[in-house]
Each structure stands twice: as structure tokens, then as C-alpha cells.
Design brief:
The chain is mainly beta. The protein has 1 helix and 24 strands. The N terminus is likely disordered.
Length: about 250
């Protein structure tokens, strides 16, 4: 794991963390790449406004295949196409271009921009694969795509159930099959915000957590689950035998 201070930016001191190892995690000679610098600047929650009980929100369409179970409301605006319910089960209310969906979309835009615009002197720069890492409360940024593939990702709130985590992603987010997001030390899914500047894809049986705010689309492959919200600003949410619960 490479850890270094970028001193060339006068206005902002950034910590760069390259999330990749050239050796096996179990090799005792490999440096501990799971250690992330602790941040002392406390992040406020991203205000999600009227999104409220919505756990799925899309701009273009919502499509389901198989026995998906959604616990919470769904919204679509400005699109009109919602398919696959049934066989999917919605334990909530479906809002299509009504007042709730329209306002929620406006609030999603505001929340997305809020998360994307956060910055401070302790921001940690992430790159590549987050598998095997443990993130503590604070602000994280990637200028390109991020993935979770070589191991699971842990969020550790360090005993503070109100701790906020914000991850800014410059392009796509990809979680490979079977990978998990683990909540530790009182961390709560409702306080984790993934700001994805492209699309997000969750592989088969992946278990994810947090508020996923994607500029484009969100795709859940067979059996993937989410403790949180799937919020696709412009594109579609595609489901396939998934479980999504309100955070």
C-alpha cells in the first residue's frame, strides 16, 4: 500500500491511498494496507430532503426480473416505465411522476451536488480496488472508477452511530460477485453516501450498504442486496431477484 502526502497543492492537503497491493493480503511481509488515516474533521449528513421513505428512485425507468423484495417506497421521474412488479414485491408506495417523485428528484440533484462538492484539508484520495480496506468516518475521493473485488470493505464508526462517511467517485462503481460492505463500530448505512459520477453495478449476491447516488444508472445482478437507497439521477434502476431495505 502506497501512502504519501501531496504537498504540491497549496490550497488543499490531500492524502493519497492507492487501494492495491502487489502481494497477497495474508503474506506477513506485506505492509498493512488496511490502515486509513483518521480524520478529525467531522462531516455533516448529506441532506436528502423529501427522498424520505424512497429506497429506489430513478429518472428513466425501473425494471425488475425475479423475486425482488423492496421494503420502502419507489419513485420515478420523469420516466414512466416500471416493470416487473409482480413478480417483484413492493412493501411500500410506488410514485410515478407525482408530487413526491418530482420533488424527490429535485432533492436528489441537490444531495448529489452537495456530496460532490464537499472538500477539506483531510480528504483521503482512494484509487482502484477497495477490497480489504477499513474506512473510518470522513471524506473520501476518487478521480476515476472504484471497485470492491479482492475482499470486503468495512466501515468503522469508531463507536459513534452518527458518524458520516462520504465517498466521491469520479466515474463508475463496481462491486463484484459475493463481495460485502461490513458495518462496524456502530456504523449505520443511512450515514454512508456514495456519490457516483457515472453508473453503479452490483454483482451476483453482493451485499452492499449506504445511499448510492449515481448520475446515470444502477444495476443489481441476481441476488445482490442493499441496505440503503438506490438513487439513479438520470438513468434506470435494474433489478434481478434482489433485496433492498430502507437504511
Amino acid at each position: 500500500m502506497i501512502l504519501k502526502k501531496l504537498l504540491t497543492l497549496p490550497a488543499l492537503s490531500l492524502i493519497l491511498l492507492t487501494a492495491a497491493c502487489s502481494k497477497d493480503d495474508t503474506d506477513p511481509t506485506t505492509p498493512n494496507h488496511n490502515v486509513i488515516p483518521l480524520q478529525t474533521i467531522v462531516q455533516a449528513n448529506v441532506e436528502t430532503g423529501s427522498i424520505g421513505n424512497l429506497v429506489v428512485l430513478a429518472g428513466a425507468s425501473i425494471t425488475n426480473t425475479g423475486a425482488t423484495v423492496i421494503t420502502g417506497d419507489m419513485g420515478l421521474s420523469p420516466g414512466t416505465s416500471v416493470g416487473g412488479f409482480p413478480p417483484g414485491i413492493l412493501n411500500g408506495i410506488l410514485h410515478i411522476n407525482d408530487t413526491t417523485a418530482t420533488q424527490a428528484k429535485l432533492d436528489l440533484v441537490a444531495a448529489f451536488n452537495d456530496a460532490a462538492g464537499r472538500t477539506n484539508t483531510e480528504i483521503v484520495i482512494l484509487s482502484g480496488n477497495l477490497g480489504g480496506l477499513t474506512l473510518t468516518p470522513g471524506l473520501y475521493k476518487s478521480t476515476s472508477s472504484l471497485g470492491i473485488s479482492s475482499g470486503d470493505l468495512t466501515f468503522d464508526a469508531l463507536g459513534n452511530p452518527n458518524a458520516v462517511f462520504i465517498i466521491q467517485i469520479g466515474s463508475a462503481l463496481t462491486v463484484t460477485s459475493g463481495r460485502q460492505v461490513i458495518l462496524s463500530g456502530g456504523a449505520q448505512a443511512k450515514n454512508i453516501y456514495w456519490q457516483v459520477s457515472s453508473s453503479a453495478t452490483f454483482g451476483t449476491t453482493a451485499a452492499f450498504a449506504g445511499n448510492v447516488m449515481a448520475l446515470e444508472s444502477i444495476t443489481f445482478e441476481t441476488g445482490a442486496s442493499l441496505n440503503g437507497r438506490a438513487l439513479a439521477r438520470n438513468g434506470s434502476v435494474t433489478l434481478d431477484g434482489n433485496v433492498i431495505v430502507h437504511p
